[in-house]
Amino acid sequence: MSQFFQIHPETPQKRLITQAVDIIRKGGVVVYPTDSAYAIGCHLGDKQAADRIKRIRKLDDKHNFTLVCRDLSDIGTYAKVDNTRYRLLKTFTPGPYTFILDATSEVPRRLLHPKRRTIGLRVPDNPIVQALLGELGEPIMSSTLILPGETDPMTDPYEIRDTLEHDLDLIIDGGFCGFEATTVVNMIDDVPEVTRVGKGDPAPFQI
């Protein structure tokens, strides 16, 4: 049975943030709000928690997990980014974008695309997740909360609880945060390519 925290969307309660991070550190699978939709995440180094997320979402090994970061200070640790890419990332973060980048050796192999050493990175503009990341001190390994057979993310924390309370350790109710997934931008090649149109405006990346 999962815990259910109601956290203020603009001024997150420190006590609840600390408890939530403790659950993540202990291997918990957590649903939390972002600036585009609700996400499901766990500790970066926890294989069992990652496998639970895969089972919940019925993901195969080709799925690119996303590292949700507090700011760009983590980017160089987990992704190979030159000056041109960094300037682009700086312009569009924080915001509702996921950027696919070449991963560094710091990223566990199980999180990578099996044929390409790539990883998704994202910096959301949401006070709750920013507080979680600040307390945790490292990225949260995440995926948009889209259930098998569905095309849209789950948006209602009470519906999430009714559907998944036996599969999760914590659901954070941060109110309505949107119903669109992020816009995904592949930055592996020299010219960025939009591979999924979501909440973020794709126009700046389209030629």
TrEMBL record:
<dbReference type="InterPro" id="IPR052532">
    <property type="entry name" value="SUA5_domain"/>
</dbReference>
<protein>
    <submittedName>
        <fullName>Threonylcarbamoyl-AMP synthase</fullName>
    </submittedName>
</protein>
<dbReference type="InterPro" id="IPR006070">
    <property type="entry name" value="Sua5-like_dom"/>
</dbReference>
<dbReference type="Pfam" id="PF01300">
    <property type="entry name" value="Sua5_yciO_yrdC"/>
</dbReference>
<dbReference type="InterPro" id="IPR017945">
    <property type="entry name" value="DHBP_synth_RibB-like_a/b_dom"/>
</dbReference>
<dbReference type="GO" id="GO:0003725">
    <property type="term" value="F:double-stranded RNA binding"/>
</dbReference>
<feature type="domain" description="YrdC-like">
    <location>
        <begin position="14"/>
        <end position="200"/>
    </location>
</feature>
